[in-house]
């Protein structure tokens, strides 16, 4: 219920900035147009890395973009919300209510996560209508499962990121570790296989790699369920390791901030 | 007297960070064995100079800081972690609202965080808005509110969860005298008399404290230096009462000779009498009249809270 109150509050604030709502939809569409024309530029050439996807770069990148919004939200939403609540002064008011700090953290960022979820689904629907993404009722459930797992993975990363903000206020190594590396090694814009072998190994540690791989296999080519199971289980392993770590880290960071009186300082 | 909160031996030390991390941090003892109580359904005021530890206590009470040691007994329950449903905190930070939302939308959101929903929420908000005369402005965005209106809304938010204890952290800083008087009226008539809450007031304003507080807690350098009602603290500083009589016509010398300890104030045509017992006052007035004196008016000359505060702080 309390999470719903946060979502409602954020929706009201979002729609009070009407121009920004319009602009953000426009800017999101613009990135799709950008990749569409980029793909058209090289449409005559067949890259060996894209053979599996019939050489269609736009379809390839569309799947990457659909998942990438989670990267940005996961890395920035929690940390940004904590910091802006500290700066604006709302954090003190929120914490003094009988609401757990986890509810405050997740509730404050939930709309951003929902928006990224909707954006992912919208991109996949666009892909299915205009670019022949292979979406059936059966694989829709697997697609949703993968998106939920990416969502939880980045929730964990986001919480870890917020823990650093809580203690150090500025300077966040989590963004460095998972942020740029996700874009570079995660196979969002180009296939991981393009990279030299040692760098490819890095991609195994990122949840985004397994998610994009699994989604592309489901949506763009004939897939083997066992292969998908392996990719999904890697996502699960990531969650099983990182979710408890991030909860513990956040709990400790709150305790530390309450001890040294810096909970609402910035 | 029923107790609402009892604070026992609270200690809190902060560590000043040093740039060289291998160097030992400097300790700041914010609170040293702080103990005091707050009577139920009364206004207790925490007073002290800057750095005395007032904010630290408020933050410990509202769960924003964890104390190093000591306990808080709260309505016979031990407040170790959260009893936040029983505490409503009013911060003086008017930025702690969402300015894009209306006053009512802000209250709706915070009410839900207190677990109040549906009709109960609607009724509670409408009632509080009406009590605080904010019902007409409830549906305009907060950014258009005056500072006085925002302060009223801050108090409403502290009351929305129907807590037993309301902590008011500088409730009238930055507002004009009329709005200030209005807030004082709200605290006395609404929060105390009508809603029967226990109020903990934190203020720098000694006039405000003297006017509002039933119980005063004086802090200095992280320690409680005195605690009690204004009269109790006044007696602690000076057990005698100073009684001042203004004359139209001064009484005969015999009257003054009968006084135990007095000072003539020629320019005011008055006398200041130092008494150790207030029951002597009617007899003194009678003697003045008997000795042909004509009295314009008389009063007990009260020592201001500022004087008491200054003397206790210096003594400490």
Task: Characterise the protein shown here.
The complex is a heterodimer of chains A (266) and B (316). Chain A has helices at residues 2-16, 18-41, 57-88, 90-95, 101-130, 137-168, 173-185, 197-203, 207-220, 225-260. Chain A has 266 residues and is an all-alpha fold. The longest helix of chain A has 36 residues, at 225-260. The model of chain A has no long low-confidence stretch (mean pLDDT 83). Chain B is an alpha/beta fold and 316 residues long. Helices cover 34% and strands 30% of the residues of chain B. Chain B contains ten helices and 14 strands. Chain B has helices at 54-61, 103-113, 118-131, 147-159, 177-194, 206-212, 230-237, 253-258, 281-290, 305-315, and strands spanning 3-16, 26-39, 43-47, 69-74, 77-78, 87-90, 165-169, 198-202, 215-220, 223-228, 241-249, 262-265, 270-275, 294-301. In chain B, the strands form three sheets. A six-stranded mixed sheet of chain B has the order 6-7-8-3-9-10, sandwiched between helices. A four-stranded antiparallel sheet of chain B has the order 2-1-4-5, covered by helices on one side. In chain B, helix 7 (230-237) crosses helix 10 (305-315). Chain B is globular, with a radius of gyration of 24 Å. The two termini of chain B are 28 Å apart. Mean pLDDT of chain B is 84; it is low at 77-82. The chains are: A mainly alpha (266), B alpha/beta (316).
Helices and strands in order, then pairings?
The complex is a heterodimer of chains A (266) and B (316).
Chain A: H1 2-16, H2 18-41, H3 57-88, H4 90-95, H5 101-130, H6 137-168, H7 173-185, H8 197-203, H9 207-220, H10 225-260
Helix pairs in contact in A: 1-5, 2-3, 3-5, 3-6, 3-7, 3-9, 5-6, 6-7, 6-9, 6-10, 9-10
Chain B: E1 3-16, E2 26-39, E3 43-47, H1 54-61, E4 69-74, E5 77-78, E6 87-90, H2 103-113, H3 118-131, H4 147-159, E7 165-169, H5 177-194, E8 198-202, H6 206-212, E9 215-220, E10 223-228, H7 230-237, E11 241-249, H8 253-258, E12 262-265, E13 270-275, H9 281-290, E14 294-301, H10 305-315
Parallel strand pairs in B: 3-8, 3-9, 6-7, 7-8
Antiparallel strand pairs in B: 1-2, 1-4, 4-5, 9-10, 11-13, 11-14, 12-13
Helix pairs in contact in B: 7-10
